[in-house]
Amino acid sequence: MKYTIAVIPGDGIGPEVTNQAKKALDAVAEVYDHIFLYKEVQMGACAIDKTGVPLPEETIKVCKEADAILFGAVGDPRFDNDPTAKIRPEQGLLQLRQELDLFCNVRPVKAYHHLLKNSPLKKEIISGTDVAIFRELSGGIYFGRKELSKDGKVAFDGCQYSVDEIIRIAHLAFKAAQNRKKKLTLIDKANVLETSRLWRKTVAEVAKDYKDVDLNFMFVDNATMQIVLNPKQFDVVLTENLFGDIISDVACVIGGSIGMLASSSIGKENALFEPIHGSYPQAKGKDIANPLASILSASLLLEHLGLQDEADAIQRAVEKSLDLGITTKDLRSKNQTFTTTSKVGDFIADYI
Amino acid sequence: MKYTIAVIPGDGIGPEVTNQAKKALDAVAEVYDHIFLYKEVQMGACAIDKTGVPLPEETIKVCKEADAILFGAVGDPRFDNDPTAKIRPEQGLLQLRQELDLFCNVRPVKAYHHLLKNSPLKKEIISGTDVAIFRELSGGIYFGRKELSKDGKVAFDGCQYSVDEIIRIAHLAFKAAQNRKKKLTLIDKANVLETSRLWRKTVAEVAKDYKDVDLNFMFVDNATMQIVLNPKQFDVVLTENLFGDIISDVACVIGGSIGMLASSSIGKENALFEPIHGSYPQAKGKDIANPLASILSASLLLEHLGLQDEADAIQRAVEKSLDLGITTKDLRSKNQTFTTTSKVGDFIADYI
Ligand SMILES: CC(C)[C@H](C(=O)O)[C@@H](O)C(=O)O
Ligand SMILES: CC(C)[C@H](C(=O)O)[C@@H](O)C(=O)O
Fold first, then answer.
1. A156 and B158 in contact by Cβ < 8 A?
2. Which pLDDT score is estimated for B118?
3. Which of A39, A64, A110, A189 is catalytic?
4. A149: how many CB neighbours lie within 10 A of its CB?
5. B291 and B250 in contact (C-beta within 8 Å)?
6. With 80 as the cut, is the pLDDT of residue A141 above it?
7. Per-residue confidence at B343, pLDDT binned at 50, 70, 90?
8. Given pLDDT bands bounded at 50, 70 and 90, which one contains residue B138?
9. How many A from CA of A245 to the centre of ligand 1?
10. Which one of B225, B247, B334 would you mutate to disrupt binding with A, by most A Cβ within 10 Å of its Cβ?
């Protein structure tokens, strides 16, 4: 079969890790006899430099038409440390999420056997963890009204949610729970926020359609602690945009490295796959960044296209690279050798 | 000397832990020849049950006039799981923070030698950690406009910050940093939020008065992960209300137990001291809750009154109880015995 894949390398280490994911996809294409047609487009700081905007029209068009989108990372310290910058790399990603209505971000968090020792958490705490975090991605304070008063002395961010926005992701999360351990935890701050109370009420309503799933609620402050204290208590976690951003980063410590976590962002018509790690500008161009999260994003992409065997082939290759310790420095355990970004990519491709 | 202390036991385990803190204060009074005059007032679910409101006028009045406030906890599952409740226990605490303008919440996070084994984190990660979290407590999304549309289908929370609100807590945080390791990390989400950009800009301005303090910035998603990955990189952490709520709960895992963390909430005229843990309703009345966070709150209270020796005496007693393992079940290590809430309180008082 022939598939068009929009590729957005982005900033920092984005291009180098995305290249390794493409190697893995190429290997899959060869073995399983597919054609993957890559259309590379710009987003982020690199797009600002070239076109003046973080998300050129061309990028939106190509992404809309593609069968799936493979994305690296955006972000650049030049903009982070300039609070007055009006145009910023991240706007590109946020705008893309909105243009394509990518409302559901799923982040699978697993403890990899070979990486247990890499986690700051004790082995007995994390071993066996398997959580799927469902983060609402196109609403909330990310997309609310933002204002700075004329005199620059008062800033404002609005956070809004509608019942419909909550319902659509709640259904996806409950369906996922049905295929897993049948437990769903809604994370909110319902003791303080009106939006959280709407989430709680709405999700409790949706739950009536999924009587086999056990629904419980947790405040975000406690939940962020609980995911570190006892991650095994969670199965499917559902939450709004900002809380999901924070919790899924914390959950990274379970996987042993943020360099291992991939995510899918699903809309009605489009889907985007990306590593959770950011653009990691300090490592840019050094061939030291861990490409596994990007490679695992490619695996999620294949799954989304219905190519389960192909997705599994990538997963197996990743497990093998962990087995053999053919990994970048961040995953190395004491005295073990490590290798480069591109060599990890080569190994994965060869193994497939 | 004679001091008036407003005591708000509150809900759940609030009353029983606060009682132990009072025992410690009574012991201090005896040894150091002070008089502590307690004025007990209501707040939270218990106040709703008795008076219909979570924060009666009488409570505000007594708190305003007291030399310091000792607070337990508020919260009750009857309200948490009813998203339509118009009156809630937490409103009492939020309103009190606002009435007394308690804008600066400080949460010291330390790894206690005897509790290293209790943390889900590996010993080498946490040992030696000493962080002070400065959380803005009277602004942000907690106190912004809240709205639910007439048809109940759209909810809204507004988050607002002014330069003045940021400046006053920034000065306190920088001053604290000067007396510590001279490092301040501002935690925000400046790549997305307008309020965060105002924080970044304003704090960078304030930093000019504290040239000896090293200022750096971190996004909240990354920061929440970093505090677990490598807590020792932090000295003073400064952040806005909601992020501070989340981060300080996560930081609890460093102390080995949320039952060990105390906090001060400082305003221009008043100061309140409370354990970080909540009302823990499951444990209410069972004499099993860990009273040490409340006892340590009493120590912070004494420090605030300028009674440093007295504060140290409580600290030493707490260390001793950890030494001897005279603690509640949550702090117990394998096969060790444990004791009750009130026995821990008795031991601390005796030791003082
Ligand atoms: C880059 C940033 C805007 C983004 C977010 O906050 O959503 C990132 O942290 C993520 O989680 O994808
Ligand atoms: C009880 C609740 C409103 C409160 C908060 O969110 O501030 C609590 O979690 C805290 O941290 O003191």
1. yes
2. 86
3. A189
4. 13
5. no
6. yes
7. very high
8. very high
9. 7
10. B225
Is B210 tagged catalytic? Answer: no
Q: Nearest residue of A to residue B160 by CA position? A: A156
**How far away, in angstroms, is B83 Cα from ligand 1 center?**
29
Q: Which one has a higher pLDDT value, B334 or A91?
A: A91
pTM recorded for the entire structure = 0.94
Q: Is B200 annotated as a binding residue?
A: no
Fold match flag (A1-102+267-352 vs A107-260): yes
Average pLDDT value for residue range B196-219:
97
B245 lines ligand 2 (CB under 6 A): yes
Among A26, A67, A101, A249, the one annotated catalytic: A249
Count other Cβ atoms within 10 Å, centred on residue A280: 21
Domain A1-102+267-352 is in which class? alpha beta
A67, A130, A245, A287: the catalytic one is A245
Ligand 2 in reach of B75 Cβ (< 6 A) = yes
**B245 is a catalytic site residue:** yes
Nearest beta carbon to residue A141 from set B155, B159, B163: B159
B334 burial class (0-12, 13-18, 19+ CB within 10 angstroms)? exposed
Domain spans of chain B, in order of start: 1-102+267-352, 106-259
Residue B301 has pLDDT above 80, yes or no: yes
Ligand 1: residue of B187, B188, B189, B192 to mutate (most ligand atoms within 8 A of CB) is B192
Q: What is the CATH number of domain B106-259?
A: 3.40.718.10
Tell whether B135 is in a known binding site.
yes
pLDDT tens-place string over residues B142-193:
999 999 999 999 999 999 999 999 999 999 999 999 999 999 999 999 989 9
Domain A107-260: which CATH number of 3.30.930.10, 3.40.718.10, 3.90.950.20, 3.30.470.20: 3.40.718.10
Predicted confidence at residue B178, as pLDDT, reads 97
pLDDT tens figures, A13-27: 999 999 999 999 999
Task: Please state the rounded mean pLDDT for residues A217-226.
Answer: 95
Q: Looking at residue A7, what is its pLDDT?
A: 98
Residue closest by Cα to atom 2 of ligand 1: A90
**Closest chain A residue to B248 measured between Cα atoms?**
A221
- pLDDT tens digits for B246-275? 999 999 889 878 888 999 999 999 999 999
